[in-house]
Amino acid sequence: MSSGPIEASMPGFGRRLLSMIYESLMLVAVLFIAGFIFHLVFQNTSSIFFRPAFQIYLLLIGGIYFTWFWTHGGQTLPMQTWKLRVVAADGQRIYLKQAVARYLFAVIGFFLLGCGILWAFFDRDGLFLHDRLAGTKIVRIEG
After folding, report:
1. C-alpha distances in angstroms, 124 versus 8, 40, 92?
2. Which of 3, 19, 31, 139 is 20 to 30 Å from 73 by CA-CA measure?
3. pLDDT attached to residue 143
4. Contacts of residue 131, Cβ cutoff 8 Å, sequence gap at least 6
């Protein structure tokens, strides 16, 4: 990927939503495999620390999944399918700090009844709340 700004258009809400649905299917598969490995390693499920450790582990796996793809080309597989890319607000590629912030804000927004997604209906640029806070945006790439 070049280091210059990416010339692209703003995708519609529906396209981003469909990409998120596809993304959720991919994420479930990734977390299923990660959960299977966790259960193989830590077999004592009766421990009081098991559930919170497992939840934190899955959040970390999700974070690694997203931040790696966002910082290495700006696209997960579903984003490639829907011709979407995450870029910085200025069109440049995003860096690890922005990717981590975007992920954490997205998780918080999701657990607050999806308010981070609904924010796009009220945002002047149509951005999700996690994009606004992290200084990123999703663009539709041509080609």
Report:
1. 18, 48, 21
2. 31
3. 67
4. 102, 137, 138
Within the chain, residue ranges assigned H as helices are 13-41, 50-71, 77-81, 96-111, 115-118, 129-134
Calpha distance 70→65 (Å, rounded): 9
Q: What are phi and psi of 136, to 5 degrees?
A: -125, 175
pLDDT of 142 reads 84
3-state secondary structure of 130: helix
Percent of the chain at pLDDT above 70?
Answer: 94
d(CA 37, CA 18): 29
Q: With 90 as the cut, is the pLDDT of residue 133 above it?
A: yes
Q: Which amino acid would we find at residue 127? A: L
Q: What are phi and psi of 112, to 5 degrees?
A: -100, 50
Q: Is the Cβ–Cβ distance between 130 and 100 less than 8 Å?
A: no
The first and second tokens of residue 13, run together, are: 């809400």
| Whether this model's pTM surpasses 0.85 | yes
Backbone angles phi, psi at 140, to 5 degrees: -95, 125
